Structure formats: structure tokens, C-alpha cells
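dumping this here so i dont lose it
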């Protein structure tokens, strides 16, 4: 991705250029082909015009130009597709970049942890209660593994969007972390397609041309962790290969919360003078115990306690991609990709419920849904007797299954010929993504034991009104995209960028049991962007821009938008009214720069930015009284605005970095929302005013890190993370106390035993801070024998932990 260019004899030579990408197609092959042909024609004409400059006289004497030495130029992706790089200083938006060494700086690679520790405006919210499946927030937008979480970030791996097809969820556990070469986090840019409301995270993976050698690592420590990884890369002539594997087992620090990860990545590449082609494969087979939120009164007694079990996920992946670039001329090139992604998830979740014995005067000896609720029925509408659970407290064992197969392709052209004797960089492309997902769910009646485990009674609940019933649906997503972006140099220091993307989405639901879930939804929108950068000084760049982005409601949201038929929060679907697409209007401006202090005195890099994103028809999830089910609805207008700033200082021995961000996320519309377990609710509803803060988004974040290399063999480092308070989910009206903020200190160290052997270790949460990163409300009387009264339920953060490992490497 990064590239250094130096001019010699009047010609700029690009030594390396590594990018990433992905896209989507627009309906109608003829319209796509015509639009792409027109864009390509523009590129060709621009190149031809440049080529028609009068040649020098054949008799003119040769002139030897002096060798010029220009400062290094960092190249970043102009679009999701790999290979269309542009000078970073010409990007009219915020950009954060990290390398593989940054991700593995504290020992074993940890992508979400690195994002939280190093990047401003990034926060980790642990909804699932598992360290390998966090929610990642950027500027108040989320990329979450929880199906049903409104997703606001697009995530790409080698140019392919990896938000899962059914709910746009991001399963961080499926990303082969040891194989990451570089990441770029770009703020809202319509060229990155659907879900880039808050921005896009682009991951470029290693290959045999960019990484050679052998490295193996083992590490372990607290919570019964045992882990290992290896990677090997080799280049031979025009061919190169790379392979990596990772394995981890951990018991977890909370009850019944084991984790098992198995990840594999391989790349085979060929490079000639004008063409580069890569075939790569990702695979994973992971299993998690997802502990989720627990009532605060139980946590006060024992923080390892889990509210109800079982809670487990199985994630399996096969992901095959083909990426290629071909240079047609010195100024025109083609880039493209194609992929297959097979994702399979099985989940089981034991829950408390509203099920209780019916009023004897209404239906003696049977179970009902709460006081005065409907009689609980099984297959064929047969009432379920109270004896089915033997007098125990009733719960449910909820099961879901997602089987998704996706394919797609993208093609783009890049032209870099001058236009009217000014620098110009034009990219135009088309993309298509299609996936078919099979979704199935069921809810089995269960009995809650003294240890809070839910044992199934062998009876699947099937209510006549469909409020709780087995579901089986086929969802087909087709996403089309047509985009272009052009950066024009008005002057040597002033560059203007204009971009646009047309998105068209088709989401079809086919009910495989009845007809209630059938649906055919179509969404389309053109998203423009305009911005500029200006070199205030050689080492200072100012930028400003405006952009629009959108996301279409997902199949899981469209299948769960009826408050009369709420869904299991994990991902049930039922018939529902349509949802509107979400549209973000964003502006941002800032300064960034860097300078060398002096010979051998180190370099300083810094940035300061302001941003605002106004969303129309934002989608939020609302919970039902039992806290296990919910539904989605459009929530009018919301806003996310703030300030982010960061600075770093690097020498051969020292590396210091600090970042602060302020994110003000608020509702901008007056709303009346159900929140039955909120203590401030009136008749089960709350009134939201414009200006009320969105829950689960802290306003303040501060990060500081320091690392020192003590010659010749030692490295020591520490980091501090300070995060402000946040309102609990369900407290959209901000009537309850916030979940308190927290401060966490981590340490890491490494010792070079030999040039090829390194010992490393880290301590997480050095002072054993007791805090939580997520909270919501529940019905405290749901399990009577617990005697609970506080409706708050929290996901506690991990306590003090120590890990150590050994790494061997040969280049």
C-alpha cells in the first residue's frame, strides 16, 4: 500500500504500489457496460492527449538533467479495489494507517485491540462478552458480529467487502490476523459502497512478494490460553507464495466461556512487467462461549457469573478470492477481483422468558406468555402443560442457523495522464455482489436450573400468531455499484477530488414454511462527494470535504421490523413492515502533517480534524419486556459529530503516541420508544428529545502509549486507555445514570535472545480495574428464585491478565 517514489532523469519511477478494494454493480448489463466504456474512453482520450505533445527535434542535442531527490510519497487506495493508489496528501478526508508490526507490537496480533489502542475515535464495546467477537466503533458507527446490530462501517479484505450477507455483521474472529500486511481506516467515502456511513476499514494481506521468510510463535497465559501461529513466504522469479496458520484455545475468565480459533490463509501470486495476479484462500473454524450481559447484582457477588447458559456460536468460513492488475500503458491500467465466500454459523442461546403458569380460571394446568398472555402452544397448536417443566422456572433454548454463499466481481480502470497540463488521477469501476442465505430458527421450552442453565424439554414453541414460532427463510441479496473518483491538481499544492457512486440493492425473502416472510425490497441511490486538499506548508496539509453515503436495510432487519412480532435478539425473523434506507450527509475538515526534528532526532507526525455526519432514517433496535426479543424501526434523524486529534514521535529508540477524540452522538428527532425495563419509563415507553445522546457511545476517549528500545536486546512499552461514560442501551431518553467511564493500563516487553529468537510478554489491565463496556436493562423478576431488583445488566471487562510467548523468525 505504501510507496516511495523518487524522480530520476526527469521520470518518476514507482517502486512499489500495494492497494486494496471492492465494489458493486448497477442493474442492467448494458447500462453498466456502457457507463464503464464511457469512463474508460475518458481515460484513453486523456492518455492520448498527453501522448500528442510535440516530440523534441531529432537534431536537438541531448540534455542531461540533474538527479532530483523528492520526499517519500505515501500511496493509499483511491477505491476499494487493489491497485489504484493515490498520494495520501491528496485525500480530502481523515485516514489512519497501521502496518503488521503495529498490529503485533505487543506480542500476538490483536486487530480490534490495536484499533482501540492506536486510533482516535475508535472504541471497543463488548456486547457478546467474548474477547474475539467485540463491537468496534468508529466515530459512533459500529462494525459488530451481532446479527441485528445496525452496521455503519464497511470492512474489506484484499478488496472484498466482508460484511456478512444476512445482516452486514463483521465477524472479527474470521480475519487471519497474522497475515495482515497493512490496514487503512478511511472516513465516510461513497466509493466504498454500502455501509460506509462512518467509514471503511481496508485490510491488505501479505503475499510472497511483500513478505518473505519464516516465522513461528507460541504464547499462552491467563484464562488457560494456549496459542500458536506460523507464516512462510517465498519468492522465486515471477512467482511467489505465502501461507499462514493460527490456532488458539482459551477457557475464558467467566464461567462457561471457552474459545477455540482455527484460521488459515494462503496466497499464490505471479508478477510480470505489466501484470500481477493473486489467488488467495482464507478458512476458519471457530467456536465461542458468548457470555453476554449479566445482572449487576450477580456481578457484585461474583464477576465470573453468567446469567443463563448455554450460549455458544460456531463460525465456519471458506473465502476464495482472485485479484489482478494489468497495465495497458504507462498511464492506464485495469484492476479487478472475483470471489466466493461461504459462511456458516450455528448458535444456541439459553434465555429467561416471560412464560409462566396460566391463570387457573382461564387455562388451568397450562403455560402462558406472561400474566394474562396467550396460551403457550407447541406443534399443531397443542397447549403446553405446566408439567412439561416439572414446576421449574420456564426459559427457552433458542437455536439459529445461517448458511450463506456469496459470489461477486469488480472491474475498474485507472488513468494517471495529465489533463490540460495538470496532474489528474481518475478511477472508474463497476461491481456486483450476490449472496443466497438460508436462515432457520426455533425456540424450545426449557427449565432453568439453580446453576442458571436452561435444559430443553423437547417441545418447540409454535404460537398461532407467529410471535414465537420456528422460521425458515431464504434470503437473496444482489448489490450493484457503479462509481468514479477523480483527483485534479489545480496547482502544485491544491488538489480537488470529486467522487460518486450509484448503489442498487435487491433483497428478496422467501418463506420456506409459510408465506408471512415473503418480501421483495429494492433500494437505489447516487452518493456524491467533493473535497480538496491544500499544502499550507511542505509538511502541513489542510483538507475539507462533503460526502453522502447510504446503507440498505439488511435481510435480518427487514425480517424483524414489526413490534407486534418481535424477534429473538440473536436473529429471529418474522413478517414485518418495510424499512427505509439510511442516508448519511457528512462534512469534515482538518490539518495533518509531519516533520523531522533534526539529524537522528526523530520524526513527529500529527493530525487534527472536525467531523459531522447527519443521518436520515437511522435504524435502531428496540427491546421487548423480556429483554430477549426486539424489533427494528427507523428513528428519524441522528447526528454524530466531534473532534479527533493524534500525535506521534518516533526515533530509533523511542516511540510515543497519543490521541484524543470527542464524539457527540445524538438524536435529532423527537421519538416515543418502547423501553419496558427502563426505570424511568412511563407505561413502558420513553420520550426521546432532540439532543439526547445515543446509548453505548462514549463521548470522550484518550489514548497514550510509549515504547523504548534498550540496546541491544530489550524493548519495553506501556499504554493507557481512558474512556468516558455512556448511557445504557434502552435509555435513549438519558434518564438514568451513565455506565461509568474507566482507565486501563497495559504493559508489554520483548527480549531478543538471538537475532532469530524473541521472547515477549504483556500484562493487560495492570491495576485490575473493574469496569464494564456495555450495559442494558432486563426484567429482574424473570427468575424469581434469584431475588433480583436492579434492572441493569452489564458486560464486565476482563481482569488482570498475563501472557508470554516465544517467536522464531528467519528472513
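and the seq i came up w/
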Amino acid at each position: 500500500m505504501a510507496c516511495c517514489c523518487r524522480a530520476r532523469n526527469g521520470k518518476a519511477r514507482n517502486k512499489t504500489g500495494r492497494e486494496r478494494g471492492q465494489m458493486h454493480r448497477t442493474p442492467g448489463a448494458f447500462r453498466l457496460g456502457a457507463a464503464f466504456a464511457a469512463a474508460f474512453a475518458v481515460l484513453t482520450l486523456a492518455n492520448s492527449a498527453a501522448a500528442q505533445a510535440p516530440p523534441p527535434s531529432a537534431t536537438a542535442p541531448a540534455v542531461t538533467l540533474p538527479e532530483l531527490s523528492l520526499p517519500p510519497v505515501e500511496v493509499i487506495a483511491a477505491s476499494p479495489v487493489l491497485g489504484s493508489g493515490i498520494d495520501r496528501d491528496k485525500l480530502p478526508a481523515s485516514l489512519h494507517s497501521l502496518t503488521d508490526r503495529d498490529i503485533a507490537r505487543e506480542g500476538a496480533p490483536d486487530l480490534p485491540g490495536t484499533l482501540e489502542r492506536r486510533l482516535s475515535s475508535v472504541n471497543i464495546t463488548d456486547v457478546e462478552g467474548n474477547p474475539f467477537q467485540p463491537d468496534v466503533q468508529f466515530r459512533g458507527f459500529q462494525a459488530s458480529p451481532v446479527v441485528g446490530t445496525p452496521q455503519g462501517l464497511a470492512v474489506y479484505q484484499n478488496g472484498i467487502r466482508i460484511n456478512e450477507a444476512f445482516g452486514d455483521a463483521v465477524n472479527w474472529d474470521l480475519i487471519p490476523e497474522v497475515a495482515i500486511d497493512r490496514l487503512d481506516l478511511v472516513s465516510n467515502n461513497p466509493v466504498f459502497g454500502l455501509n460506509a456511513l462512518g467509514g471503511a476499514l481496508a485490510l491488505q494481506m501479505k503475499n510472497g512478494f511483500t513478505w518473505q521468510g519464516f516465522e513461528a510463535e507460541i504464547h499462552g497465559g491467563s484464562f488457560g490460553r494456549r496459542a500458536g501461529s506460523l507464516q512462510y513466504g517465498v519468492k522465486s522469479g515471477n512467482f511467489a507464495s505465502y501461507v499462514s496458520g493460527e490456532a488458539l484455545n482459551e477457557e475464558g475468565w467467566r464461567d462457561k466461556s471457552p474459545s477455540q480459533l482455527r484460521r488459515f490463509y494462503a496466497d499464490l501470486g505471479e508478477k510480470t512487467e505489466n501484470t500481477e495476479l493473486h489467488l488467495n484462500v482464507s478458512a476458519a473454524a471457530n467456536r465461542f462461549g458468548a457470555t453476554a450481559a449479566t445482572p449487576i447484582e450477580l456481578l457484585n457477588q461474583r464477576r465470573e457469573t453468567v446469567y443463563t447458559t448455554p450460549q455458544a456460536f460456531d463460525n465456519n468460513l471458506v473465502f476464495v478470492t482472485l485479484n489482478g492488475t494489468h497495465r495497458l500503458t504507462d498511464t492506464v491500467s485495469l484492476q479487478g477481483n472475483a470471489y466466493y465466500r461461504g459462511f456458516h454459523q450455528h448458535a444456541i442461546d439459553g434465555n429467561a422468558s416471560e412464560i409462566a403458569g396460566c391463570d387457573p380460571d382461564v387455562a388451568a394446568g397450562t403455560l402462558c406468555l406472561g400474566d394474562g398472555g396467550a396460551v403457550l402452544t407447541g406443534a399443531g397448536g397443542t397447549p403446553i402443560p405446566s408439567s412439561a417443566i416439572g414446576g421449574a422456572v420456564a426459559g427457552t433454548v433458542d437455536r439459529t442457523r445461517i448458511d450463506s454463499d456469496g459470489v461477486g466481481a469488480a472491474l475498474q480502470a485507472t488513468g494517471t495522464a495529465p489533463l490540460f497540463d495538470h496532474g489528474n488521477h481518475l478511477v472508474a469501476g463497476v461491481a456486483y455482489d450476490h449472496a443466497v442465505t438460508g436462515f432457520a430458527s426455533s425456540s424450545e421450552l426449557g427449565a432453568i436450573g439453580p446453576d442458571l442453565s436452561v435444559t430443553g424439554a423437547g417441545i418447540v414453541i409454535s404460537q398461532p400468531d407467529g410471535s414465537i414460532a420456528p422460521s425458515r427463510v431464504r434470503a437473496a441479496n444482489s448489490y450493484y455499484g457503479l462509481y468514479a473518483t477523480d483527483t485534479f491538481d489545480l496547482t502544485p499544492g491544491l488538489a480537488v477530488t470529486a467522487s460518486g457512486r450509484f448503489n442498487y440493492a435487491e433483497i428478496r425473502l422467501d418463506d420456506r414454511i409459510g408465506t408471512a416472510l415473503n418480501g421483495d425490497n429494492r433500494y437505489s441511490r447516487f452518493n456524491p462527494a467533493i473535497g480538496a486538499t491544500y499544502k499550507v506548508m511542505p509538511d502541513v496539509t489542510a483538507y475539507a470535504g462533503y460526502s453522502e453515503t447510504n446503507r440498505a436495510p439488511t435481510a435480518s432487519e427487514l425480517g424483524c421490523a414489526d413490534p407486534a412480532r418481535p424477534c429473538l435478539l440473536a436473529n429471529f425473523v418474522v413478517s414485518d413492515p418495510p424499512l427505509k434506507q439510511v442516508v448519511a450527509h457528512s462534512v469534515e475538515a482538518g490539518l495533518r502533517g509531519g516533520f523531522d526534528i533534526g539529524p537522528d532526532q526523530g520524526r513527529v507526525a500529527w493530525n487534527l480534524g472536525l467531523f459531522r455526519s447527519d443521518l436520515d432514517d437511522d435504524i435502531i433496535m428496540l427491546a421487548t419486556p423480556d429483554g430477549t426479543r426486539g424489533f427494528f424501526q427507523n428513528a428519524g434523524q441522528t447526528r454524530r459529530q466531534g473532534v479527533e486529534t493524534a500525535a506521534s514521535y518516533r526515533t530509533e529508540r523511542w516511540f510515543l503516541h497519543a490521541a484524543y477524540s470527542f464524539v457527540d452522538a445524538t438524536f435529532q428527532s423527537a421519538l416515543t420508544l418502547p423501553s419496558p425495563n427502563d426505570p424511568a419509563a412511563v407505561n413502558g415507553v420513553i420520550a426521546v428529545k432532540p439532543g439526547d445522546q445515543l446509548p453505548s457511545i462514549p463521548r470522550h476517549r484518550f489514548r497514550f502509549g510509549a515504547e523504548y528500545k534498550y540496546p541491544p536486546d530489550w524493548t519495553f512499552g506501556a499504554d493507557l486507555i481512558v474512556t468516558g461514560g455512556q448511557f445504557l442501551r434502552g435509555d435513549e431518553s438519558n434518564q438514568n445514570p451513565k455506565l461509568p467511564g474507566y482507565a486501563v493500563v497495559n504493559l508489554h516487553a520483548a527480549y531478543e535472545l538471538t537475532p532469530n529468537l524473541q521472547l515477549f510478554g504483556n500484562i493487560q489491565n495492570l491495576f485490575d480495574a473493574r469496569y464494564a463496556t456495555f450495559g442494558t436493562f432486563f426484567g429482574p423478576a424473570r427468575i424469581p428464585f434469584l431475588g433480583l431488583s436492579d434492572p441493569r445488566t452489564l458486560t464486565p471487562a476482563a481482569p488482570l491478565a498475563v501472557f508470554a510467548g516465544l517467536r522464531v523468525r528467519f528472513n
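Residues 29-51 form the longest helix (23 residues).
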